[in-house]
Recover the amino acids of this structure.
């Protein structure tokens, strides 16, 4: 708010036509917030979208990206792309507001977790997701060798559904902490398909299991990207766009970027708040999280890159 009022947000300092802001949402709620970093109330959302639709230029996301990177962006307004991560079911109700203001949207789905637990890849993705939540040395025999991430991935990919199911039950009993995303209800693959067809929303990959890509063995990391890309294209999504799970600077690296490029990804989004210019890295496009405020100066500060200053102060 302050940065917008003092004019520290670049919106007031430079020509709009050269910068692109991207914001992201996660969960929506009509109750008190449980996760203030991830949730926005429907009431705030409606107020935010109204402010945004009056002040920003919201064109189809892929065209906007092409224009900014080719230097052909010609606009007097702040260009903005709105994204939602994690495909939480609460977004279905939020879509009413996006429709009301005719705001285009990119939805990044961890498709492996959107698959049912009764499908191999759905169960595999849940097991893989849980790896970092395990107290690994509690693995009972004969699973003790699975402490090693390579062996863990090998086992998950090559086991029968029955063996995997058995392992998943053990995993849930030795987890150190529960995972927020596994506790949420995510959209199903059918629901993703439906919103692509009926609402003209871009759905893109947020990997299979929502793990930190830079921490994974190469085979595992490649599977996260290639398998999710297959599913995204099967349901009519757009494989040119991608969002890194967690998205902080160290959650991806050059190896991950090369794999994305080979899989046909042109634009990959982080969660570091930065504005995108013509010479920015296509595979490291910054985004600011939209928080639960409905004040005009907060919303305009956020879409103008005010959080860039905050992230710099925190060396993120
Ligand atoms: Zn995510």
């Amino acid at each position: 708010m302050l940065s917008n009022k003092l004019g520290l947000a670049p919106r007031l300092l430079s020509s709009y036509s050269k910068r692109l802001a991207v914001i992201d949402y996660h969960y929506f709620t009509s109750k008190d917030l449980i996760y203030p970093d991830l949730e926005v109330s429907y009431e705030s959302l409606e107020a935010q979208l109204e402010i945004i639709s009056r002040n920003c230029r919201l064109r189809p996301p892929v065209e906007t990206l092409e224009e900014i990177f080719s230097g052909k962006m010609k606009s007097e307004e702040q260009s903005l792309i709105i994204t939602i991560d994690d495909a939480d079911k609460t977004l279905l109700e939020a879509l009413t507001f996006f429709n009301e203001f005719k705001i285009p949207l990119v939805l990044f789905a961890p498709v492996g977790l959107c698959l049912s637990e009764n499908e191999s890849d759905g169960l595999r993705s849940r097991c893989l997701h849980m790896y970092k939540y395990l107290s690994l040395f509690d693995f009972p025999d004969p699973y003790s060798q699975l402490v090693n991430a390579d062996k863990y991935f090998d086992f998950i990919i090559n086991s029968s559904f029955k063996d995997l199911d058995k392992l998943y039950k053990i995993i849930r009993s030795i987890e150190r902490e529960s995972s927020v995303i596994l506790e949420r209800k995510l959209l199903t693959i059918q629901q993703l398909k439906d919103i692509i067809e009926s609402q003209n929303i871009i759905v893109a990959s947020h990997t299979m299991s929502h793990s930190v890509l830079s921490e994974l063995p190469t085979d595992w990391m490649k599977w996260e990207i290639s398998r999710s890309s297959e599913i995204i294209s099967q349901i009519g999504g757009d494989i040119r766009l991608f969002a890194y799970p967690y998205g902080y600077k160290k959650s991806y690296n050059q190896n991950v970027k090369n794999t994305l490029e080979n899989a046909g990804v042109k634009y990959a989004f982080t969660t570091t708040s930065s504005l995108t210019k013509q010479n920015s890295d296509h595979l490291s496009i910054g985004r600011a999280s939209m928080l639960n405020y409905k004040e005009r100066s907060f919303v305009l500060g956020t879409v103008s890159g005010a959080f860039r200053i905050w992230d710099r102060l925190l060396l993120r």
User: Anything to note?
Assistant: Residues 120-174 form one domain. Residues 9 and 305 are 6 Å apart (CA to CA).
